[in-house]
Amino acid sequence: MSPSPRQAVVLASNRIPFARQSGPYARASNQDMLTAALDGLVDRAGIAGERLGEVAGGAVLKHSRDFNLTRESLLGTRIAPETPACDVGQACGTGLEAAILVANKIALGQVESGIACGVDSTSDAPIAINEGLRGVLLEINAARSNLDRVRALGKVRPGQIVPEIPRNEEPRTGMSMGEHAAIMAREWGIAREPQDELAAVSHRNLAAAYDGGFEDDLVTAYLGLERDHNLRPDSTPEQLAKLDPVFGGAEGTMTAGNSTPLSDGASAVLLGTEEWGAERGLAPLARLVDAETAAIDHVGAREGLLMAPAYAVPRLLARRGLELQDFDLYEIHEAFASQVLCTLAAWEDPVFCRERLGRDGPLGPIDRDRLNVRGGSLAAGHPFAATGGRIVGNLAKLLSARGGGRGLISICAAGGQGVVAILES
Amino acid sequence: MTDAYTQLVSNPFGGFVARNLGLPRPVELDRHRPGAPLIDGRVLVGAAPGGRCAAAVAAVLAEAGTAVDSRLHDEVRQALGAAAIDAGVWNPEAPGAQRWKGLVLDATGIGSSGELRELWSFFHPTIRRLERCGRLIVIGAEPGECPAPAAATAQRALEGFVRAAGKEVRNGSTAQLVRVAAGAEGRIGSTLRFLLSPRSAYVSGQLVRVGAGRDVPEVDRERPLRGKTALVTGASRGIGEAIANVLARDGADVVGLDVPALSGDLENVVEPIGGSAIAVDIAAADAPRRICDALAKRGGVDVVVHNAGVTRDKTLAAMDAERWEATIAINLTAAERINDELLARGGLLREDGRIVCVSSMSGIAGNAGQTNYSTSKAGVIGMVESMAPILAERAATINAVAPGFIETAMTAAMPLGPREAGRRMSSLAQGGLPVDVAEAIAWLAAPDSSGVNGNVVRVCGQSLIGA
């Protein structure tokens, strides 16, 4: 491929600590949290009053009133109100996809700077009225006479008072994401022990990151919370082994400990050209080199819902002429420990690599000591659209701090999608 | 087709009683139906490190479209991927509800007694997950070919494992060892297909040796004997009739043979399958000439099945010379003479010819009251072993099947005690059917069985007698 004329660099990032559902952020709205994350970034980068090229972001669970969530949040910050904003949505891939969108505009020379951001609240979740009641209310609204309105009102039934609560459910299969992941875990023969081990390492790494001050310029306290609410520094595989399975039935291997909890939180990443950053005294942390998004057929074909990254990465590697082992760091979103382990198993498997990827041989194993070295979603929590920003900010800083290198990001998303990207410093 | 006892224990109450009294609980065996898949379920495959048959196993399963699983880091996955099998994953640490119709381990890589642990690792977590009428197959190397004594020792040990496993698998399942000579990996297809399929319903605890042989030809799996002419002696009834029917089903042009007195029965067998008949007493002096003349008129023969046989039972002390002579003459000498004439006439046994003999468990274990019969049937084994190298020179093969207790008019006439003992004293705890013997013969007769030569395969449900 021809090299792009210029590449976007990550200049700074910020997030609020992530909270468990109905925890410290129970009353905070998506707009509240996103505004806080953006304002924190403004402070950190010193860009108050700046007109940026674009702010792109989104939320997975969104109220209908938040049709312009990013723009409305921006207007509550000290970013110049003349900065345009757009809402982006790709389920759990939203945060990373937003970063790719902004980076592409920068690479094409359409903008010089921008922010990619994401937020989600599972506490302040939108609740819709019952579909039957909605039909009646729409009918009343359309009625021309009072008599018609009364007639329509007569169609209201007691059962219609039950509201529609958003569910973590795949629309086309009716199964929760956890159940889908449990099927994958079963198909790949992922045992309980390595899942618990991965979760324990995630907590250990994130706790060390906080203790060592690594998170100091990545996280800004919010509503009294200074560290991620879900983080259990003393988590051990032995303790995790005591939990009962929550997905996959009694024989299942997936527990509340090795699956991400429903969470609240927001993150934001400042991107720009190197020149734009230099003019503002912002050193580039890492370049966003390339990205790939893949989707699989989890409905018709028998591919696992969260296996798309396993397809996206090899495509990206092929385009860049890289091997899976050519990375100094790997950030694989830990939606479920089993998702990470299935992905790694698939890349090592001659059958998957041949039959599903059409490769001659497997991609091979990765050095597990380079994986999620400052913790992952199992420890931090996973406010859907905020995860991408957390990971991009985290990896950019890691690469910069080690004086250069190459990192891989892999994020699975609902609907059988996967977003992956390469950062280099 | 099942006996009354098998039917009884197949119902819930009978099964309950048999279970609690520790009685045998035979199940109705799956048998081949034309058009059915090779094996009706998933197959788990594995390989001990350093094995050499994974590609051949994968090729068989890929062609059959069988759903396959394996352990994730098993060497066999390389071969499965290369064979375009989208194999599932099995991890004993995360067992779930997986079950298999077949378990196949390539144990050719086992080179020491310590490495026999591979048998335990593969089968220990899976043997109870074998479905009804499942298949447990171990593929080993020829001990005689192993350069190191430790490897030869370990390879010989596989036989004991398979025989014991055959006695442990339940629900009509079977266990077999296939020994593959170096360089004969590509010859195991027909044997593996037979042993995986319901065609081998009543074959268990057997050792099949696959060696060099001519290149395996392309074969129509539904009609492997298409275009082949097959002579079946003693074809008018019982096992012979089943052999004629199965060979015809597999596409052969069948020439049935029996004594003139049974011409009517013989016609009734060959007529529906479009075959032809030769009425001749095989013990007669001119029989080989007349048979070979008849075959020459048909342009030669591809498959000869020496099935005709008689019993003339008496304890040796009470046996007159006529009983002895007749039994040896019909069961052994006649086959020898026909073979000699056949081979003497150059190309009468056509290229890639097959001779399949019917021996008997009596020939292996010996049976009181059957010194004559046991002698003749052991002689058949000797004939197979001694003739195998001669036929190999002509790119042909000679093998035998040794039936155990087969449900025929002859066994139906046995007294209840010996009959029930004959049925139940086997791993499958039931008698076999004539078609079970016929299926084994059809496998040995098939053009793609060129690597199977000089074998004696029992069709006995792993009878405890003579094991």
Kindly summarize this structure in a few lines.
By secondary structure, chain A is α+β, with helices and mostly antiparallel strands. Chain A is 35% helix and 16% strand. Among the domains of chain A are: 131-161; 177-213 and 287-424, 3-Layer(aba) Sandwich (Peroxisomal Thiolase, Chain A, domain 1).
3D architecture notes:
The complex is a heterodimer of chains A (425) and B (467). By secondary structure, chain A is α+β, with helices and mostly antiparallel strands. Among the domains of chain A are: 131-161; 177-213 and 287-424, 3-Layer(aba) Sandwich (Peroxisomal Thiolase, Chain A, domain 1). Chain A is built from 14 helices and twelve strands. In chain A, helix 1 crosses helix 2, helix 3 packs across helix 14 and helix 4 (131-142) packs antiparallel against helix 5. The relative contact order of chain A is 0.20. The model of chain A has no long low-confidence stretch (mean pLDDT 95). Chain B has 467 residues and is an alpha/beta fold. Chain B has two domains: 31-210, NAD(P)-binding Rossmann-like Domain (Rossmann fold), CATH 3.40.50; 229-459, NAD(P)-binding Rossmann-like Domain (Rossmann fold), CATH 3.40.50.720. Chain B has helices at 4-10, 12-21, 54-64, 76-82, 117-123, 149-168, 189-196, 238-249, 263-270, 287-297, 321-344, 361-365, 371-393, 409-412, 416-424, 434-445; strands spanning 43-47, 68-71, 88-90, 100-106, 130-141, 174-180, 206-210, 229-233, 253-258, 276-279, 301-306, 349-358, 397-403, 456-459. In chain B, helix 8 links the parallel strand 8 and strand 9 (253-258). Chain B is globular. Chain B starts with a helix and ends in an 8-residue tail after the last strand. The interface between A and B is medium-sized, with 20 and 22 residues.
